[in-house]
Amino acid sequence: MRQSKGGTVIEIKDLWYTYPGRSEPTLKGVNLKIEEGEFVLLTGPTGCGKSTLLKTLNGIIPHESGGIFSGKIKIAGIETGDSNQTEISRRVGLVFQNPDDQIFSTTVEDEVAFGPENLCFERPEIDKKVEEALKMVGMSGHRFDSTNSLSGGQKQRICIASMLAMMPEVLAMDEPVSQMDPAGTREILNTVRELNRKLKITILLVEHRLHELMPFADRVVIMDSGKIIFDQPASKAFDQLDVFHRLGLRVPEPIELCHTLGIKASPFSAEETFAVLNTENFKENTKSYRKFPGTEEKVNSSGCSIENSEPLISIRNLWSGYDKNKMVLRGINLEIRRGERVAVMGTNGSGKSTLLLNLAAMFKPYKGSVKIFGEDVRSKNPYSFAGRIGFVFQNPDLMLFCDSAEEEASFGPVQLKFEDIEKRVRISLEAMSIFHLRQDLPQSLSRGQRLRTAVASVLSIDPELILLDEPTTGQDRVNIEQMMDYFKNKGSTLVFCTHDIEIAMLYATRILVMNEGQIIADGKGRDVIKNIDILRKASLTQPPVVEIANYLGVDAYSITELVETLAHRSPEVIKC
Ligand SMILES: Nc1ncnc2c1ncn2[C@@H]1O[C@H](COP(=O)(O)OP(=O)(O)OP(=O)(O)O)[C@@H](O)[C@H]1O
Ligand SMILES: Nc1ncnc2c1ncn2[C@@H]1O[C@H](COP(=O)(O)OP(=O)(O)OP(=O)(O)O)[C@@H](O)[C@H]1O
Known about the structure:
Protein name: ATPase component of general energizing module of ECF transporters
Function: Probably part of an ABC transporter complex. Responsible for energy coupling to the transport system.
CATH superfamily of the largest domain: P-loop containing nucleotide triphosphate hydrolases
Pfam families: ABC_tran
CATH class of the largest domain: Alpha Beta
Structural class: alpha/beta
Strand content: 15-25%
Distance between the termini: 48 Å
GO cellular component, one term: ATP-binding cassette (ABC) transporter complex
Bound molecules: adenosine-5'-triphosphate
Family: Belongs to the ABC transporter superfamily.
């Protein structure tokens, strides 16, 4: 059992860091003090330096990275500048942003055992730690699996388990749950919080989805352009909502709702919001509300005019997988028409990425048929669809191999011998807000910037069908909106996997819910999310605003709709 020592565990003084080859520093005088047992949420716009800061804590920067480093970091009693990597990693566990950068063993068991082995525990103790850590992340059944056979969310669970098996004094986590389903996210964050409380493990966690994290954090720190510009207790963080809005960060729906209604309150849950709204004062005020400023219809209400068009994709009884003895997709029937924006949701490992790979003709069906643009994929070479389908992998790094973002975006148009390459590249880089980074080496961009580079490389071929595997992970609000608005305004046919129900409700014309390789629901978002049994089966939850509407006894699917519903109802009708 760890011994609590009390006091300051992380102390960063005037930290500056410039990556090799860059003229501008990425960290510009960071000062931060964290006490033992604190749970600190670190957020900020994409590319502001969060991952860079985390890498300085476990010594990767500067010990492995090179570059120009100045300032002091004292962590769990040692100075990182004077200590070697082994000494630092005994104290600090870093969960990487990209699980593929962290995982290097071939089996799950070896991966999780690696840390305790290095700490020289006896074999029975190592086995016990592996078992406990896998149990904590819900992966006990995968102990002997190959790490290559894991889905994105399963890989993230293994990365967390590897760190939990060591029980370091400080756990630095870089978007550790970004690819996890909502139920899994909550379970794992509960576990981390429990360890934080019981064992006083200090947590510094980077995340954009504040609504998922706020119930767990003690303190919120915001970075912008390499500096810490905000540091507040979690309970007071949203008193300065303008900071979040100005930086384009996502604000939890209950807080955004209260703000829109002009109520000064920061509830995190639907229940707390209901308590805030269920006051005489509020009910009295609703009498005078007629039209709220800045409310605009955003949620998608229909699958629109596409119902009669020819399907672009037609799938009949599809069985598919990586091994013929273990089918992943089991009897999928699906049609997708031009202009639809389909969100694919469901538990980690339920087969979403595998379905997307089938839609991209990267698999041949084991049983059943897949027709893309009317052509049966069995009789076609996948390359014959080049230029017509654009696919972005869950891990964008798998598709970035050029020397600059600009070259990435021009690769497809060059291969397809388009004439207007320059124009296509510019439009796609601008659409993803990375035109200013066009000369940068993709590997030297932040995760959010790399993901947008990968999307730009697909947009530049202007494909008929766009397939994106979790395109919103690790992005701030502004970038998510910009990307999804682009597809919406262009009328793209888009299929995207996501665990983000709020984004799916805002941008998908249709939601598919998967469970154990089957589609268990398929319809308009507002119909799908009413079915609590389906949501539970697929590890999903209703968006907070819908839960709040349920509490109030009204029908609304977005903040806008809820505000307008409240405005047009007599307060007595609201079932408070
Ligand atoms: N290896 C590298 N070489 C050069 N520059 C880099 C490197 N890694 C990151 N940078 C630059 O440092 C800045 C901060 O990147 P970092 O990954 O720390 O941002 P972030 O806040 O974690 O972003 P995100 O939310 O997208 O993950 C970015 O502008 C990026 O281009
Ligand atoms: N390359 C592979 N080889 C063997 N099995 C695999 C491979 N990739 C995925 N699987 C297995 O197929 C199943 C479905 O994986 P898939 O990646 O399609 O799930 P997912 O729903 O996209 O999950 P996530 O939400 O975690 O991304 C999982 O049980 C996974 O272990």
